[in-house]
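Researcher: Structure prediction, please.
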Amino acid sequence: MRTLSLSPLTVLPCTPLEQIDAALVAGFDAISLRLFPVMDTDIEVMADAQLQRDIQNRLAESRLSVFDVEVVRVGPDTDIEGVKPALEFAASLGANRLAVTSLAADEYDPRDESDLVRKLVDLSEAAAARDVGIMLEFIPFRGINSLQHAIDVVTAVGHPGLGVTVDALHFHRSGGAAAELAGVDRELLACAQLCDAPSAPPVDLPFEARYGRLYPGEGGLPLADFIRALPEDLQLCVEVPSQEPELSVTERAVKGFASAHRLLEQLEGPASPIAGSE
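Model: Predicted structure follows.
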């Protein structure tokens, strides 16, 4: 059975400590932590030294690993020096990756892509010096908006520590098909993110991505084909921001884990119980 990591969007808004506790209860093997605020309700972890120590201590007490920290919007003017403190903190947690995306579509100029590549080279080298990798996520409403575009950028960077994040929603909303995914070199992939959604896309893709996803198995995305096209050793992350305010942080984590685990069992057959999920 593949391991599962709990992505922040599944449980936000909450504190990182609440996310860690919820992941433990739900049975996850790992978590992703949001260090850089994206939404108004996000906590500025890097501005709170005491919170950083609390996160380190809480993780040390748990069996959870940190798969990645998020998220940096990389463009021609990205301040790599400004990201280094977060890389240091990520390294102290044993994090495997730093998640990055490109700028929004209306801020992205294809003529600047060579500058973007150089920034990703610099960021990949800074991360590698701390034993952290980088994963680039493509998003239909951002500058790097498809699997092939992301692969082209990662190939141009040419750094072994840089790979592509394949989010099930973004992959299908950008027109991706399982056959395309199955043909990608394993070395170019960093992780996959699981969620579901109606088969037909809405008008407002950003709103759906941030607030309106469904749990695996509840929608119309061809998730079985998606998962079968992935390398068997690729890390899976559960990222399901949904509009269910009646559910607590822990209940959302439990539902996310259970739905993803059930889907994987159906695809891969019976497996031994995961520690902490009984």
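Model: The chain has ten helices and eight strands.
Researcher: Thanks, that helps.
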